[in-house]
Amino acid sequence: MNTPHAAETLHVRCCIAGGGPAGMMLGLLLARQGVEVLVLEKHADFLRDFRGDTIHPSTLEVMGELGLLDEFLTRPHQRAQTVSLVVGGVPLTLGDFSHLPTRCKFIVFMPQWEFLDFLADHAREYPHFKLRMQAEVTDLLEEQGRVTGVLVSTPEGLLEVKADLLVAADGRRSVVREKAGLEVMDLGAPMDVLWMRVSKRPGDPSQLLGRIEAGQMLVMIDRGDYWQCAYLIAKGSLERLKQEGLPALRAKLTKLAPFLGDRPEELQSWDDIKLLTVAVDRLKQWYRPGLLCIGDAAHAMSPAGGVGINLAIQDAIAAANILGPELKRGSVEPEQLAQVQKRREWPTRMTQRLQVMLQNRMITPVLNSTQPVSPPWLIRWLAQQPLFRRIPARLVGIGFRPEHVR
For strand 157-168 and strand 291-293, is the pairing parallel, antiparallel, or unpaired? Predict the structure, then answer.
């Protein structure tokens, strides 16, 4: 293919597009194996708010396997040992992580920039690791049907990166998977999410809180000195909400979480509220010769359960375990890339199946409801059973096929 003239050309064994959790973890693991790896991140830093930041016990187990857990837990974070909902004013504890067979029996809430900075700091300790910020992938390089690298826009000019393997970890709006023409299967999502923050005060509840009332759902994540709030709305309904006005939204937040009092007044304009367009999809095939997609680039997850980061990290571990030895020797063939998909596709399918079931059976009926809601008696009874609480905790905290660092 004809390409614009590049100001600089690099040759690496593995190039990773995207410096999110999947890309940074894979970069660290490959460099640790002695594989020359370059991570390209289009932003100048990791300081972007309103990202998923729930680090689950499965990921904390990986940090322990890397010998980094104690240092990791010195970074600013909050912990939750249970998952609670308030449905129609009735408090329910639906998950208890205290019995998981893991080092850490809790979820960690850590701003994603802290997590990514931590991974980058440790990856830089390996001579084979390189990270380029403000490096945005714009196109693929191909030869005879094989992806051989990428074109990258940087402040210094156009960069050409030749690689034996390109890994797309550039998120649910992946430029790489679009340019590669990989087929996406859309599983549908009935909601979008409005992210916002309100201050936290002494005396506020400390555990993870989900609050459900007729037509409304609110999830509140403890960030130490403020609440990161996720307000679920029916897909495509933001404009209608804006027409109702910001005071109406503030009133809804106060009704959902009365302990907030007047704090929703801190939301001064719609600029204080960020829209997350929810998608649940996955690629039919995660790879082409010379290219592998992982994380959200391979399978966009619903925010339900906060599992997205942790599934992405599991992909990175599987890719490093399977492909690392091959990359040390040279390029990888499609058969090895297919092994990664085979390893990770089943847990992805099972997780998405649960998410879609939750969407169809709970989220959609609640968002469409105009009548007062209350938890069914069976759910009330199950929430009181300690053994039942272990099941959701296991599904969320560990997942279907946890990966371990070799």
Answer: parallel
pLDDT digits (tens, 9 = 90+) for 312-330: 999 999 999 999 999 998 8
Task: Determine the residue type at 157.
Answer: G
Report the pLDDT value the prediction gives residue 190, as an integer from 0 to 100: 86
Contact 293, 286 (CB under 8 A): yes
Nearest C-alpha neighbor of 340 from the set 324, 353, 329:
324
Compute the distance between CA of residue 380 and CA of residue 154 in angstroms, rounded to an integer: 55
pLDDT at 6: 66
Sign of CA dihedral 63, 65, 67, 70: positive
pTM: 0.91
Residue 148's region, left for phi above 0, alpha for psi from -120 to 50, else beta, is: alpha
Task: Identify whether the C-beta of residue 286 lies closer than 8 Å to the C-beta of residue 300.
Answer: no
Residue type, 217: M
Check residue 362 and report its DSSP letter: I
Contacts 24+ apart (CB under 8 A), 218-223: 218/253, 218/256, 218/257, 220/257, 221/53, 221/54, 221/109, 222/78, 222/80, 222/109, 223/78, 223/109, 223/111, 223/197
